[in-house]
Amino acid sequence: MGRLVASKDSEIANLNKRIDACEGELSRLRSLNDSTQRKLSDREIELKRSNEEYEHVKSKNETLQKVIYKQEESIKDLEKTCKELKNNLDLKVSELHLSEDKVKAKDSEISTHKEKIEDANKLIENNKQMIAWLNTQVSEQK
After folding, report:
1. How many C-beta atoms surround the C-beta of residue 17 within 10 A?
2. What's the gap between Cα 91 and its chain centre?
3. What are phi and psi of 60, to 5 degrees?
4. How many CA atoms lie within 13 A of 141 on its CB side?
5. pLDDT under 50 in the chain at which residues?
6. pTM higher than 0.70 for the full model?
7. DSSP per residue over the chain, as a string?
8. pLDDT on residue 34
9. Residue 79 and residue 90: Cα distance in Å, rounded?
């Protein structure tokens, strides 16, 4: 029976060593679990921040898209206005050329009339001289 007790004591000692080893492993695993839980918590915080940042960027992007759309509409309106103004300018330039042509025609008409007036004035002067000569001839004949 002494052997049996010694065998059992040896078994118990073995089991105690295994229990100690298991407790050590359990302690290590708990420490590892705690570390992993902290890392998981940190990653969850990072993920939450990343999601918030993503939502912020997404919202900002949507706002910028709206601004871009409005700017594109404004550009279209400005291009339309610019085209209308260019058409009006082209029309005014055509009207100006037409007016310049009319002015040139009137200048030519004025030059022609000046020449006719000059010729008429010369004729009147000649007629005056003729009348004066005729008057002197008539006076001499009397």
Report:
1. 10
2. 30
3. -65, -40
4. 6
5. none
6. no
7. -HHHHHHHHHHHHHHHHHHHHHHHHHHHHHHHHHHHHHHHHHHHHHHHHHHHHHHHHHHHHHHHHHHHHHHHHHHHHHHHHHHHHHHHHHHHHHHHHHHHHHHHHHHHHHHHHHHHHHHHHHHHHHHHHHHHHHHHHHHHH-
8. 96
9. 16
C-alpha 130/C-alpha 136 separation (Å) is 10
Q: What is the mean pLDDT of the chain?
A: 95
Residue 142, amino acid: K
Structure tokens at 130: 């003729």
Q: What is the pLDDT of residue 141?
A: 84
Structure tokens at 127: 């007629």
For residues 50 and 21, what is the distance between their CA atoms, to the nearest angstrom? 42
Q: How far apart are CA 127 and CA 121, in angstroms?
A: 10
Q: Which two tokens stand for residue 92?
A: 């005014």
pLDDT of residue 2: 73
Give the C-alpha separation, 45 to 90, whole Å. Answer: 66
